[in-house]
Amino acid sequence: DLLDAIAKARDAGAWPKDARAVIAGDAQARDSYRDELAARIGALHLGEIVRLSDHVGDMPAAYLACAIAVSASTDPEAFGRVPPEAGAMGRPVIATDHGGARETVVKDISGMLTPPGDAAALSKALARLLAAPPETLSAMGAQGRRHIEARYTVERMCADTLGVYRQLMG
Predict the structure, then answer these.
(1) Measured in whole angstroms, how far is the alpha carbon of residue 12 from the centre of its chain?
(2) Tens digits of residue pLDDT in 33-68
(3) Own/partner long-range contacts of 62-65 (Cβ < 8 Å, ≥24 apart)
(4) Which of 10, 12, 47, 101 registers the highest number of CB atoms within 10 A of its CB?
(5) For the packed helices 2-11 and 119-131, what is the interaxial angle rounded to 10 degrees?
(6) The pTM is what?
(7) Degrees to nearest 5, angle at CA 8 with 10 and 115
(8) Distance CA 109, CA 103 (A)
(9) Burial tier of 66 (Cβ tally within 10 Å: 0-12, 13-18, 19+)
Protein backbone atom coordinates (compact mmCIF):
# COMPACT_ATOMS: atom_id res chain seq x y z
CA ASP A 1 0.00 0.00 0.00
CA LEU A 2 2.79 2.42 0.86
CA LEU A 3 4.53 1.87 -2.46
CA ASP A 4 1.27 2.35 -4.38
CA ALA A 5 0.56 5.50 -2.34
CA ILE A 6 3.99 6.94 -3.12
CA ALA A 7 3.51 6.23 -6.83
CA LYS A 8 0.08 7.93 -6.74
CA ALA A 9 1.55 10.98 -4.98
CA ARG A 10 4.40 11.13 -7.49
CA ASP A 11 2.05 10.77 -10.46
CA ALA A 12 -0.18 13.54 -9.07
CA GLY A 13 2.83 15.85 -8.71
CA ALA A 14 2.49 15.81 -4.92
CA TRP A 15 5.81 14.06 -4.19
CA PRO A 16 8.62 16.62 -3.77
CA LYS A 17 11.61 15.92 -6.01
CA ASP A 18 14.00 15.79 -3.06
CA ALA A 19 11.81 13.57 -0.83
CA ARG A 20 12.87 9.99 -0.23
CA ALA A 21 11.17 7.06 1.47
CA VAL A 22 13.14 4.46 3.38
CA ILE A 23 11.54 1.16 4.23
CA ALA A 24 13.59 0.12 7.21
CA GLY A 25 13.80 -3.22 8.89
CA ASP A 26 15.23 -6.66 8.87
CA ALA A 27 13.54 -9.12 6.51
CA GLN A 28 13.50 -11.61 9.44
CA ALA A 29 14.11 -14.58 7.14
CA ARG A 30 11.32 -13.46 4.81
CA ASP A 31 13.57 -12.91 1.83
CA SER A 32 10.72 -13.53 -0.61
CA TYR A 33 8.82 -10.61 0.95
CA ARG A 34 11.83 -8.34 0.56
CA ASP A 35 12.19 -9.53 -3.05
CA GLU A 36 8.50 -8.78 -3.61
CA LEU A 37 9.00 -5.24 -2.30
CA ALA A 38 12.05 -4.72 -4.51
CA ALA A 39 10.13 -5.98 -7.54
CA ARG A 40 7.22 -3.65 -6.77
CA ILE A 41 9.60 -0.71 -6.42
CA GLY A 42 10.96 -1.57 -9.86
CA ALA A 43 7.53 -2.07 -11.43
CA LEU A 44 6.35 1.32 -10.13
CA HIS A 45 9.61 3.00 -11.20
CA LEU A 46 10.26 4.16 -7.64
CA GLY A 47 13.97 3.32 -7.56
CA GLU A 48 14.97 6.98 -7.28
CA ILE A 49 12.49 7.59 -4.45
CA VAL A 50 12.33 4.46 -2.30
CA ARG A 51 15.17 2.66 -0.56
CA LEU A 52 15.03 -0.65 1.23
CA SER A 53 17.17 -0.72 4.34
CA ASP A 54 18.28 -3.73 6.32
CA HIS A 55 18.25 -3.91 10.10
CA VAL A 56 18.49 -0.50 11.76
CA GLY A 57 20.42 -0.64 15.01
CA ASP A 58 19.68 2.92 16.07
CA MET A 59 15.97 3.54 15.62
CA PRO A 60 15.96 6.84 17.57
CA ALA A 61 18.46 8.22 15.03
CA ALA A 62 16.36 6.85 12.17
CA TYR A 63 13.25 8.59 13.49
CA LEU A 64 15.17 11.83 13.95
CA ALA A 65 16.39 11.58 10.35
CA CYS A 66 12.86 11.41 8.98
CA ALA A 67 10.31 14.17 8.56
CA ILE A 68 7.30 11.82 8.64
CA ALA A 69 6.98 8.25 9.88
CA VAL A 70 4.55 5.87 8.20
CA SER A 71 3.09 2.64 9.52
CA ALA A 72 0.92 1.20 6.77
CA SER A 73 0.29 -2.23 8.24
CA THR A 74 -2.75 -3.97 6.84
CA ASP A 75 -3.22 -6.24 9.85
CA PRO A 76 -4.24 -4.68 13.17
CA GLU A 77 -1.45 -4.68 15.71
CA ALA A 78 -2.35 -4.64 19.40
CA PHE A 79 0.44 -2.16 19.99
CA GLY A 80 2.52 -1.58 16.89
CA ARG A 81 5.80 0.04 17.89
CA VAL A 82 6.35 2.43 14.98
CA PRO A 83 3.61 4.98 15.74
CA PRO A 84 4.41 5.44 19.45
CA GLU A 85 8.18 5.30 18.92
CA ALA A 86 8.01 7.92 16.16
CA GLY A 87 5.66 10.02 18.28
CA ALA A 88 8.03 9.79 21.24
CA MET A 89 10.78 11.08 18.95
CA GLY A 90 8.62 14.07 18.00
CA ARG A 91 7.75 12.95 14.48
CA PRO A 92 4.32 13.18 12.89
CA VAL A 93 2.92 9.76 12.02
CA ILE A 94 0.70 8.44 9.28
CA ALA A 95 -0.74 5.11 10.41
CA THR A 96 -3.46 2.71 9.44
CA ASP A 97 -6.70 3.35 11.31
CA HIS A 98 -6.92 0.11 13.28
CA GLY A 99 -5.38 -1.63 16.24
CA GLY A 100 -3.17 0.26 18.64
CA ALA A 101 -2.58 3.15 16.22
CA ARG A 102 -6.08 4.41 17.07
CA GLU A 103 -4.81 5.09 20.57
CA THR A 104 -1.22 6.13 19.91
CA VAL A 105 -1.88 8.56 17.04
CA VAL A 106 -4.22 11.46 17.73
CA LYS A 107 -5.97 11.96 14.38
CA ASP A 108 -5.07 15.27 12.72
CA ILE A 109 -3.24 16.37 15.90
CA SER A 110 -0.13 14.17 16.15
CA GLY A 111 -0.55 12.55 12.77
CA MET A 112 -3.03 11.08 10.37
CA LEU A 113 -4.96 7.81 10.25
CA THR A 114 -5.94 6.19 6.96
CA PRO A 115 -8.21 3.23 6.22
CA PRO A 116 -6.41 -0.11 5.94
CA GLY A 117 -5.58 -1.09 2.37
CA ASP A 118 -6.53 2.32 0.95
CA ALA A 119 -3.50 3.47 -1.06
CA ALA A 120 -5.41 6.51 -2.37
CA ALA A 121 -6.14 7.76 1.16
CA LEU A 122 -2.56 7.05 2.21
CA SER A 123 -1.34 8.97 -0.83
CA LYS A 124 -3.49 11.98 0.12
CA ALA A 125 -2.16 11.88 3.68
CA LEU A 126 1.41 11.73 2.40
CA ALA A 127 0.76 14.62 0.01
CA ARG A 128 -0.80 16.69 2.78
CA LEU A 129 2.10 16.24 5.17
CA LEU A 130 4.77 16.53 2.49
CA ALA A 131 3.28 19.90 1.53
CA ALA A 132 2.95 21.09 5.13
CA PRO A 133 5.33 23.77 6.37
CA PRO A 134 8.05 22.63 8.79
CA GLU A 135 6.30 24.42 11.67
CA THR A 136 3.19 22.28 11.14
CA LEU A 137 5.21 19.06 11.14
CA SER A 138 7.09 20.21 14.21
CA ALA A 139 3.86 21.05 16.04
CA MET A 140 2.35 17.66 15.16
CA GLY A 141 5.50 15.93 16.34
CA ALA A 142 5.46 17.88 19.61
CA GLN A 143 1.82 16.91 20.17
CA GLY A 144 2.71 13.29 19.51
CA ARG A 145 5.55 13.39 22.00
CA ARG A 146 3.31 14.91 24.69
CA HIS A 147 0.64 12.29 23.99
CA ILE A 148 3.08 9.38 24.28
CA GLU A 149 4.82 10.79 27.37
CA ALA A 150 1.48 11.24 29.12
CA ARG A 151 0.11 7.77 28.37
CA TYR A 152 2.80 5.24 27.51
CA THR A 153 5.52 5.27 30.13
CA VAL A 154 6.73 2.19 31.96
CA GLU A 155 5.50 3.76 35.21
CA ARG A 156 2.01 4.29 33.79
CA MET A 157 1.90 0.75 32.39
CA CYS A 158 2.92 -0.72 35.77
CA ALA A 159 0.41 1.42 37.68
CA ASP A 160 -2.41 0.51 35.28
CA THR A 161 -1.52 -3.20 35.45
CA LEU A 162 -1.43 -3.15 39.25
CA GLY A 163 -4.77 -1.32 39.21
CA VAL A 164 -6.32 -4.14 37.17
CA TYR A 165 -4.86 -6.71 39.61
CA ARG A 166 -6.28 -4.78 42.59
CA GLN A 167 -9.66 -4.60 40.89
CA LEU A 168 -9.67 -8.32 40.17
CA MET A 169 -8.64 -9.17 43.73
CA GLY A 170 -11.61 -7.21 45.04
Answers:
(1) 22
(2) 899 999 999 999 999 999 999 889 999 999 999 999
(3) 62/22, 62/24, 63/89, 63/91, 64/89, 64/91
(4) 101
(5) 60
(6) 0.90
(7) 135
(8) 12
(9) middle
